[in-house]
Prior knowledge:
single chain; 9-stranded mixed sheet; 16 helices
Amino acid sequence: xxQQTAFIPTMREMPADAEAVSHxxxxxxxxxxxxxxxVYSFLPLGRRVLRNVERIVREEMERTGAQEVLxxxxxxxxxxxxxxxxxxxxxxxxxxxxxxDREIVLGPTHEEVITQLVGQEISTYRKLPVTLFQIQTKxxxxxxxxxxxxxxxxxxxxxxxxxxxxxxxxxxxxxAMYDAYHRIFARCGLAFRAVExxxxxxxxxxxxxxxxxxxxxGEDDVVTCSHCDYAANMEKAVGRGTNASLKASAxxxxxxxxxPDAEKFHTPNxxxxxxxxxxxxxxxNELIKTLIYMADGSPxxxxxxxxxxxxxxxxKNALNAVELELADxxxxxxxxxxxxxxxxxxxxxxxxxxxxxxxxMRSGVAGANETxxxxxxxxxxxxxxxxxxxxxxxxxxxxxxxxxxxxSLRVIRGIEIGHVFKLxxxxxxxxNARFTDAAGVSHPFIMGCxxxxxxxxLSAVIEQRHDENGMLWPAELAPFQVHIIPxxxxxxxxxxxxxxxxxxxxxxxxxxxxxDRGERLGVKLKDADLIGIPIRIVIGKGIAEGxxxxxxxxxxxxxxxxxxxxxxxxxxNKLKNR
Length: 578
């Protein structure tokens, strides 16, 4: 492409409304433009990068034997009601009606559609297993779109779906996709981790992993081990203390006999954990924190140690709840008889979810369900039930790893770029998608689901690969592989050499951008840094001796001189070795 006629509207100023670095650079570099909140147009440079991502995804999907389809974005709402997800998905599901007053949703995902399709077309085990994938525009009515392509209302995803007759075949499909994802993200130049994950609204009956691009700007906490390969998102992570608490709670029954009876005492104005620690001179690990929640409209109390934070996703999963929110002060007063800050488990007449660390405590201090009072010598299992004990807290930095003896947990930030699920029969049962086995017996398909945020990948790459001057695209994703820059478009020798190299590279299948604009060299180099093409060849006065300048974007190395006659071969060798 010749830059003189290319549609590359770069900007000199940083966009004021762009928070994330990737958002700033994609707009400033002329890759995307916002149409409305969370909705973006891809300009030629952005579309070229997006096409490269799609090419990598297609190649690796087809390498697994998956076959590409294209499914409708418009889906009947009744299909979502049949699967049970119409209400579960909540207000993020885009709903509309056609002229016949039939309700339609714009698909944020395609489990229902693909399950119905395969259920109609495959009826026998002889056609299994099969994996189908698509690269398709999705829609999600985000309450607060932000960070450019990282949280959009309209975006491109790759989603694949496997259908099998047994769990062994599902395991094989899952492993094939898991391995393919590693290849895809490595080819995109990303530093990433596969982490144990929560299935969320997609659900399922088996394992699930998220693929997280490591980035300080990420919205998700990722818990990793300093020594082994343990990794989980915060919604699934556990520390070794949680596992140890299982044994401790089982072994402490006799110890409760030596603890005095629970005793109420006056604690005026000591509401928060910080107030209690300072006022009573005890550690947060000696306090039992009681949090009142409303789960699908019904009250529930969750108990964690005072020095821990509660994980709402773990609580929702334990209750199989769709909605979970902290009770307001009026509700807390109605349930406990006390102001917020004085709730406790003793004599509380709502369900209690008790974190395993609380269950393992010999005794502790808790709220008395009376304003300005707490209770000491509270013994879990003696003074309140442990019927619903479980892991309800966040793992924390520095805790011992649950998988190895040598490691400790670290919390890092990540951007979710892919997710793989073992769905089992969650959708095939509800949508009556079945096949017959060799004996003629009918069974629901055993399914897997595998997604990649294609547009989101662009932002994830930039969050990891940029400097103060612009983007640092890896060769496989870059909009062009080589940027040819003649110093002066009025110098005939420079322009002749630039055109000669440009045509040579094009004929060799290498995509080059020729900056033939009548701009000053400083402007050209600033735009080149911003756009981030991996190889830059500057043609200046040295062309009189047949010399050009070669520089690799982001290498930190100074430009080197080489013969124009060698430049084409040098490009081919460099790209071949990447």
